[in-house]
Design a protein that fits this description.
It contains 5 helices and no strands. The chain has one domain: 434 Repressor (Amino-terminal Domain). By secondary structure, it is mainly α. The two termini are 21 Å apart. The relative contact order is 0.18. α2 packs across α3.
């Protein structure tokens, strides 16, 4: 699992959200979130920004450039 997939999953689970709930908040399908978390797809830059804003973390944290937020 790559760092982006791992961090999305960890942040989602920390908020006790299902993949479907996160997908609804981001305006994407549940399948999209599932694919991100399994490293089958990568969210585009706009969705990556939305994920960072939703979880109140920097995009650098999501992609593994920093280990804290």
């Amino acid at each position: 699992m790559n760092i982006l997939a791992l961090r999305i999953k960890e942040l989602r689970e920390d908020k006790e959200l299902s993949q479907k709930e996160l997908a609804k908040c981001l305006g994407v399908s549940g399948m999209a979130v599932s694919r991100w978390e399994r490293s089958l797809r990568v969210p585009d830059a706009f969705i990556l920004r939305d994920i960072a804003l939703y979880f109140n973390v920097p995009t650098d944290y999501l992609v593994g450039l920093v280990d804290f937020y």
